Every structure is written in structure tokens, then in C-alpha cells.
TrEMBL record:
EC number: 2.7.7.41
Protein name as it appears in the record: phosphatidate cytidylyltransferase
A molecular function GO annotation: phosphatidate cytidylyltransferase activity
Pfam families: CTP_transf_1 (PF01148)
Length: 405
């Protein structure tokens, strides 16, 4: 796509107007010389982390909506993303400043989003998850597989709505939808027929980018307002700032406070790992993501444990110093595993970034300084079910055990 847009931007009228072989020969020589220079620039490695530019541009970008046509010979990374990176490098502070500004903006949006009510939270999460699934299936289709994207996204939205309405029935959506999608892929008459890789990648997309995030909706739907140490003005603030023409939200609930504090712990783990790794990192953590270090990972665990312990104290958890620190370490470790899993997906597909691509490549979504949706939310995926069951099973059991002592 980058090469095509560059050719379109050339002064075509200068070379193609008039008649005769001279003009056509000049035009062909101009195109060939431009193509050679473009390929020479693409052969230079872009960074130490991830594949070189040549391997990135050699990949093909899938088109269509599961029509079985495979992939078309278009570069996977758009020219706009390259221009955006060049612009970021020229800004004061470079990429770190852009990440800081966009991170603060996302924090404000996420806080408003969490305290807007269960249904609005679910609606916003559906948008994020849809973009995340498009990114995942873009990686899969870059490998030549043909997953059932539309059916998978529809099943994910149904699971989100079910988790918000009746969380007890949310577990039934995934197996029933998977069975129906598998039956459809096996019985469709379109050739080539679905392969094992097509079916398994479809289910992986439903599970990884669809089913697991529904646990955030279930956690947000936890009702009741338990006694906390938060000041009353903070608890009333979301309702005071809410527009009067909208229905009043269930702003301050146990689920909302818990979701917000858990997300803050995940973000603190990522930020702590970034800065501590840059300052003290010496030992590489994994070949999947060479820039990550053991020192950075340990620093992230400490930061998430500190934030989670403070949250456990304010939320009045039993043995808050123990349950909160363990909760934070759990969030940090599982979030790191999710980050490495997303890096493994991108490395296997040969793509450094994974922008969401839809509508035949006419729509692309990336976060300034953060990459795509998977790059920003990979730490949240595996964390969701573990923290949900930690709060709904482990903490109540601990309270009962302490009462019997």
C-alpha cells in the first residue's frame, strides 16, 4: 500500500501526457528507479526489537471479509504509520512524550468509562474488543489462514451483552457459539474447504480476544457498595459530573472501584517495568521480546504490588497487606505473560505492529506511541479471569475463615 500511494503521488501528467514511445519509456524508467530506491530503503533494519523492514514489507496484508481469497500482495504496514513515527521522533521528548500524553488521555477516558455504568462500560468494551479481534485476525491472515472473522466478532458481542445482563449465562455463549461456527465452517460449500488451522485460529480469536475480556464486564457488574475508606466526596463525584439528560449510572459500586484499581495496578506494572528496565536493566528476559529485562519485570511487580496493596487497604480487604500484595504480584506476572503472548503472535506473523484493519484496508486504528489495541491491552487479557475469581472466591472464603477463628 505504501508503494502504491507513493506512485499515486508522483506527477503523472508530466510523464504520461502526449503520445509516442519517448513519454512511455520515460515513465517506465521513472517508476523502476523509484521502486529500486524504495526497496533499498526498506531493506534497512528499523529497530533491534522485531523483524527488519524488509521482512515487514515482504508480508502480505489480507483483504476481504473471510471470502477465501487468501491474501493480496499489499504491504502490511501503511505509509501513514511510517510518517507518524518520523513525526514522533522530531517532537520534543520523542516517543516517550507522545506515549505519556496519550497514556494520560487514555487514563482519563478509561476512568470516565469505568464509572459510567455497566451497560455503557460493556458497549465501550465491545468496540475495543472488536478492534482487538480485527488486529488478531489480521495477524492470522498474514500467515495465509482464513478464520471466520464476522461470526467470531458477532459471538463476542453476544457474550458481552450476556455478561452484562445475566453473568451466570455468559459461560454458555462461548461453547454454543463455537459449536455453531465450527459447523458452519465445515458445511460451507466455498472452496478451498476450511482447514484445521482455519478452525483453530477462529476459536483462538474468540477465546483470547473475545471470551476472556468478558470477565471485565462481569467484574464491573458486581453490585453493592461495601464500606470503604474512600472519602464520600470521591464516591459522589462520578454522579455529580454525569450529564443530567442521561439516565443515572450505577457509578460507585464495588465492581467499578475494583475494576478501576485493578487497571491502575496493571498500568503501574507496565510503567514501572519500562522505567526501571531502562535504568537498571542488564539481563534479557525473553527472546520473544528482547527489550524486556529481568530487572524491569521485577520492578513492575513491585509497583503493581504497592498500588494493589493501597487499594486493598482502601477497599477494606481482609489481611489487606497480604491479600493486596499478592493480588498486585498476580496482576504483574499474568500481565507480563499476556504481553509476551501478544509479542509472540506478532513475531510469528512477521509484523512489528498490528493495526486493526477493516473494510478492505480502508480503516486502520493505532494508538499514538502505543501501537495497536493488542499492544495496549495485551496485559489485560489473561488477567481478567484470574482477578475475577480471586475477588469472588478467594476473598469471600478468607473472610469466612477469619470469622470462624
Amino acid at each position: 500500500m505504501a508503494f502504491g500511494w507513493a506512485l499515486r503521488s508522483l506527477p503523472v501528467s508530466r510523464w504520461r501526457t502526449g503520445s509516442g514511445r519517448v513519454h512511455r519509456a520515460r515513465w517506465q524508467r521513472h517508476r523502476l528507479s523509484f521502486a529500486r530506491s524504495f526497496r533499498c530503503q526498506a531493506d534497512t533494519p528499523s529497530s533491534a526489537d522485531g523483524p527488519s523492514s524488509s521482512s515487514t514489507f515482504s508480508r502480505a496484508e489480507p483483504v476481504g471479509e473471510g471470502d477465501g481469497r487468501g491474501v493480496a500482495g499489499r504491504p502490511a504496514i501503511a505509509d501513514g504509520s511510517m510518517r507518524a513515527r518520523a513525526l514522533i521522533r522530531r517532537l520534543p521528548g520523542g516517543e516517550l512524550m507522545v506515549r505519556f500524553i496519550s497514556g494520560i488521555s487514555m487514563g482519563v477516558v478509561a476512568t470516565t468509562w469505568i464509572f459510567s455504568g455497566t451497560w455503557l462500560f460493556m458497549f465501550g468494551l465491545c468496540i475495543v474488543i472488536t478492534l482487538g479481534q480485527l488486529e488478531y485476525y489480521n495477524l492470522v491472515r498474514a500467515k495465509g489462514m482464513r478464520p471466520a472473522r464476522k461470526a467470531s466478532i458477532a459471538a463476542t458481542i453476544l457474550a458481552m451483552v450476556t455478561a452484562a445482563a445475566t453473568p451466570a449465562l455468559a459461560e454458555a455463549v462461548f461453547p454454543v457459539s463455537a459449536t455453531l461456527i465450527c459447523t458452519y465452517m465445515l458445511l460451507k460449500r466455498q472452496k478451498p474447504f476450511a482447514s484445521i488451522a482455519d478452525i483453530s485460529t477462529t476459536f483462538m480469536g474468540m477465546f483470547y480476544a473475545g471470551y476472556l475480556p468478558t470477565y471485565w464486564v462481569r467484574m464491573r457488574a458486581l453490585g453493592g457498595v461495601e464500606p470503604t475508606l474512600f472519602p464520600a466526596v470521591i464516591q459522589r463525584l462520578p454522579r455529580l459530573l454525569w450529564p443530567g439528560w442521561l439516565p443515572p449510572p450505577d457509578s460507585w459500586t464495588f465492581g467499578a472501584a475494583l475494576t478501576w484499581w485493578t487497571w491502575l495496578s496493571i498500568v503501574s506494572s507496565d510503567v514501572g517495568a519500562l522505567f526501571i528496565g531502562r535504568a537498571f536493566g542488564r539481563h534479557k528476559l525473553s527472546d520473544v521480546s528482547p527489550k524486556k529485562t529481568v530487572e524491569g519485570a521485577l520492578g513492575g511487580f513491585v509497583c503493581s504490588a504497592a498500588v494493589a496493596t493501597l487499594g486493598a487497604y482502601l477497599l477494606k480487604w481482609p489481611l489487606w497487606w497480604l491479600t493486596g500484595s499478592f493480588y498486585g504480584i498476580l496482576v504483574g506476572v499474568v500481565g507480563l505473560l499476556g504481553d509476551l503472548t501478544a509479542s509472540l503472535f506478532k513475531r510469528d506473523a512477521g509484523l512489528k505492529d498490528s493495526p486493526a484493519v477493516a473494510f478492505g484496508g480502508r480503516f486502520r486504528w493505532t494508538l499514538p506511541g502505543h501501537g495497536g489495541i493488542l499492544d495496549r491491552t495485551d496485559s489485560f487479557v489473561f488477567t481478567a479471569p484470574l482477578v475475577y475469581y480471586y475477588v469472588t472466591i478467594v476473598l469471600p472464603a478468607l473472610r469466612v475463615a477469619l470469622m470462624r477463628l
